[in-house]
Every structure is written in C-alpha cells, then in structure tokens.
C-alpha cells in the first residue's frame, strides 16, 4: 500500500482547499482519506457522493438566481423527497449527469464523459452483483486518483457559471449602472466574478454573446453601451488570450456579415479596441462598411461612434474627409462628443475662432479640457498661441479655470510644455497689470510653480 499513498497528492490537496461548498469539501475529504488508506472502492463511492451532493447544491444556487431549468429540477427533487418517492429519487440520481449537462450546462463534453466514467465505476464498486465473481472490479490507485482529480477540477472548485444563466447574469451586470467603466476595474470585476474559475466552454459562449448581442434581436438594450461591451471584450482577451483569439476571429468572420446596414457602423467600437476585427471581417462586409462611412451624415456617424474607426488607416482617410466636409458647428459637436487625437488640430482652430467671451468659455470647456489628456507639448503650445492671440479668449472670465483644468489633465506632457505655459503666464502678467490681476492668471502661475 505504501507504494502509492501520498504520490501526487500535493496538487489534490490544493484543489480540495479550493472547493467552494463546505459540505462538498468534507465529502471529497472523506474520499481522499479512503484513497490514502488504501480503501479504493470506498474512495470511488465517496467521490461520487461528493459529486452528487455538489451538483444538487449548484442547482439550488442557480435556482436562487432565477434559473428556470434549475428551479424545475430542484422542485421535482424536493417533491419526491416530500412524498418519499424512492423510485423517482433513484431515477433522478441515475439521470443526474445527463440532466444537468443538457439543462444546466454545467459541463463540457469531455467533462461529462469523465464524470460519467466515475458514475459507472461507482456502480461497480457499490453493487458487486453487477460483475461476476471472476471479474470483480479492482480499481487501481491511479484510476481513483484520476476520478478524485476530475471531480475537483470539473465540478467542486467551480462556481455554477457554465450555462445560459451565467451568460444572462453577465449581461445583466454589464448593463447595470454599477458596472465599472475604466479598463482596470472592468478587468478585475470580470476575472474575479466570472473568469477565474470559468470553464473554457463558458468563456467561448461569453465571447460569442458579447460579439453579437449589440447587433441581435435585443440590440436596443445596447444603445450607448457598445464601448462598454468592446472594453469588456478587450479585458476578456487579456485574461483568456488563446480562447479569445480563436473564438473572436471565427465568430467575426462568420457572423458579422449578417449585421444589417442600420447597425454595421456600430462595430467601430470593436475595431478600436481590437484592430484585428477589421482584418477578420469578410471582404464584402468591409466594402459595405466603407460605403456607409462615405454616405453617412454627422448624426449617424456620432450615433454609431463611427469615428472610433480612425484606428484603421484606410478608414481614417475616409473619416477625415467626412469631418472636413462639415461646417464648424457640426465639427464642434463631433469633437465634444468624441475627443480624439485626430481632432486636436481642428479643435484648436475652432477654439481660436471664438468670437465672444462666452463662446470662448464654452469651446474651452467642450474642446480643450476633454482633449487635454491627449495633447503633447507642441499641441499645448499651439493652443496657448491661439489664446494669447484672441482677447475674446484670454480676457474671458472663465478662461483661467479652463486653462487650470487643462494643466491638471495634461500632466503627461507637462515636462515639455511647462516652458510654453510659463511664457504664456508671463505675457499675461505684463499685459494685464501685474501678478495680482485676475487676468494675469495667478492660480495658473501657482500651479506651475508647484510642478
């Protein structure tokens, strides 16, 4: 017996510690103790008991979250228990794996097959009459260890997040007001709640659902949320790179050609977050997309966030041509809604054309502040030149506050831009009567001194 006791148990012990349900952990612990003690048939029976219990516990958990199939299963079982209906309970246990596999989707095909072998071996151990005396089942230590490992990896350590209900819960989270918006927080949320213990089949189905949901029968739910979906997919790609690359490439190639013209431009958010999406599209779909870009008016381009397609050089040329064709008021609306590096130069030009104090304040807040984090030192210099060249801007009462926010938001470029800021403040001080004058920008000077 000493020839196998303890071999390979370090990994199994670690898996046992990760079992979610306390009772499941106790039951699989009994199986492990039997294995270590050399009681191999008892170990297989105990492993099946742990699997049986954990499946039912997961069904109850899914039912509590509103899963209809899980609720029906739990109700049938509880009714049989209440009626002391042994025959029905035996049938439930006999069909347990196939039931949860088809209705609750807890297992991938190979996982279902592994656990099915465990159930068959359990029958041979628990019912010796199933075998002849000469062929009495004699499990090997390796077989028992394999069954325990499969039970742990395929079921006991995993949250019940493998079926349709898991995908539905993910989308409910995604569309809720509390879903995070910055990439780091999205990544942490998605990994810890869904991905860390998710099986590959669940990740595949999740990726497919996220790629198609904004363009399917319930696309109206995702109006204004496509950037959120695209950023979420990007974080899934970081956590599950191999699965994402294979699944997304195939799904985009096969499914995006069916997206109707009314929604096709909305794939721009996906293109920005992963430029390979453009390469994965079938050529007829790319032709359709470019034609829609050529013909769309400004409101359509804004509605579908089409300017995100700047990430693709051949599309950037089309978008710049469309942008240049619009009058200044339309351009102002586009830039204020979709601040991008490509718009910095025209935004500075529009800001410099301000014809009144109030217009200068409005344009400063709507254009310069949102674009500030994207500016480099030369672009900061260009902005300050239009300010100092237009009294409607530098003499507007709101401009000091605008420029102070630009300094706060453009700190990545502050090293190279600080001389330009200092030169501007010095000029304003000379022009407006000393350092104490409001229009000499004393608060801006204080910020520069503190850097």
Can you describe this structure?
There is one protein chain. The protein is mostly helical and about 450 residues long. The chain has 27 helices and no strands. It has 3 domains: about 10-155; about 165-325; about 340-450. It has helices at about 10-15, 20-35, 40-65, 70-80, 85-95, 95-105, 110-125, 140-155, 165-175, 185-195, 200-210, 225-240, 240-255, 260-265, 270-275, 275-280, 285-295, 300-305, 315-325, 330-335, 345-350, 355-370, 375-390, 390-395, 400-410, 415-430, 440-450.
Structure summarized in a few sentences:
The protein has 451 residues and is mainly alpha-helical. The protein has helices at 9-17, 22-36, 40-64, 68-82, 86-94, 96-104, 109-126, 141-156, 164-175, 183-195, 200-212, 226-239, 241-255, 261-264, 268-273, 276-280, 283-295, 298-303, 313-325, 328-337, 344-352, 357-371, 377-388, 391-394, 399-409, 414-431, 442-450.
Features:
elongated, 451 residues, mainly alpha, disordered N terminus, 0% strand, 27 helices
Portion in strands? under 5%
Gross geometry: elongated
Number of strands: 0
Uncertain ranges: 1-9
- The CA-CA distance between the termini, in Å, is 72 Å
Order of helix and strand elements from N to C terminus = HHHHHHHHHHHHHHHHHHHHHHHHHHH
- Count of the domains: 3
Q: Roughly how much helix do the residues carry, as a percent range?
A: over 70%
Mean pLDDT: 89
Q: How is the biggest beta sheet arranged?
A: none
Which structural class fits the helix and strand makeup?
Answer: mainly alpha
Radius of gyration: 32 Å
Give the arrangement of secondary structure elements.
Layout: H1 9-17, H2 22-36, H3 40-64, H4 68-82, H5 86-94, H6 96-104, H7 109-126, H8 141-156, H9 164-175, H10 183-195, H11 200-212, H12 226-239, H13 241-255, H14 261-264, H15 268-273, H16 276-280, H17 283-295, H18 298-303, H19 313-325, H20 328-337, H21 344-352, H22 357-371, H23 377-388, H24 391-394, H25 399-409, H26 414-431, H27 442-450
Helix pairs in contact: 2-3, 2-8, 3-4, 3-7, 3-8, 7-8, 9-11, 10-12, 11-13, 12-13, 21-22, 21-23, 22-25, 23-26, 25-27, 26-27
């Amino acid at each position: 017996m000493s020839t196998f006791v303890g071999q390979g148990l370090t990994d199994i012990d670690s898996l046992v510690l990760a079992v979610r349900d306390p009772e499941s952990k106790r039951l699989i612990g009994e199986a492990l103790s039997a294995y270590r003690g050399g009681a191999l048939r008892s170990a297989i029976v105990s492993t099946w008991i742990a699997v049986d219990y954990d499946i039912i516990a997961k069904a109850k958990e899914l039912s509590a979250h509103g899963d209809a199939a899980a609720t029906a299963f739990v109700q049938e079982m509880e009714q049989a228990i209440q009626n002391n209906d042994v025959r029905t309970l035996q049938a439930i246990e006999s069909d347990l794996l196939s039931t949860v596999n088809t209705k609750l989707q807890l297992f991938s095909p190979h996982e279902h097959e592994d656990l099915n072998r465990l159930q068959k071996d359990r029958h041979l151990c628990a019912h010796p009459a199933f075998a002849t005396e000469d062929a009495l089942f004699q499990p090997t230590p390796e077989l028992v260890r394999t069954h325990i490992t499969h039970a742990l990896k395929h079921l006991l350590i995993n949250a019940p997040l493998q079926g349709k209900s898991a995908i539905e819960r993910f989308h409910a989270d995604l569309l809720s007001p509390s879903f995070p918006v910055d990439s780091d927080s999205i990544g942490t949320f998605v990994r810890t709640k869904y991905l860390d213990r998710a099986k590959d089949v669940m990740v595949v189905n999740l990726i497919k659902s996220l790629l198609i949901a904004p363009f399917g029968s319930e696309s109206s739910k995702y109006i204004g949320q496509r950037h959120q979906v695209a950023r979420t997919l990007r974080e899934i790609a970081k956590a599950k790179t191999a699965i994402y690359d294979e699944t997304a490439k195939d799904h985009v190639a096969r499914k995006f050609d069916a997206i109707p013209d009314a929604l096709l431009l909305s794939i721009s958010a996906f293109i920005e977050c992963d430029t390979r999406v453009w390469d994965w599209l079938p050529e007829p779909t790319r032709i359709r997309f470019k034609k829609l870009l050529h013909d769309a008016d400004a409101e359509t381009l804004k509605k579908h966030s089409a300017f995100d397609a700047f990430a693709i050089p051949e599309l950037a040329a089309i978008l710049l041509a469309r942008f240049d064709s619009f009058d200044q008021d339309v351009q102002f609306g586009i830039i204020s809604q979709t601040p991008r590096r490509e718009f910095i130069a025209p935004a500075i030009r529009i800001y410099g054309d301000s014809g009144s104090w109030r217009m200068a304040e409005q344009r400063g807040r709507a254009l310069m502040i949102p674009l500030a984090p994207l500016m480099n030192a030369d672009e900061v210099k260009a902005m300050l030149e239009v300010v100092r060249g237009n009294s409607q801007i530098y003499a507007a009462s709101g401009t000091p506050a605008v420029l102070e926010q630009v300094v706060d938001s453009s700190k990545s470029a502050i090293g190279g831009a600080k001389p330009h800021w200092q030169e501007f403040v010095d000029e304003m001080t000379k022009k407006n009567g000393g350092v104490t004058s409001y229009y000499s920008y004393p608060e801006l000077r204080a910020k520069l001194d503190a850097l």
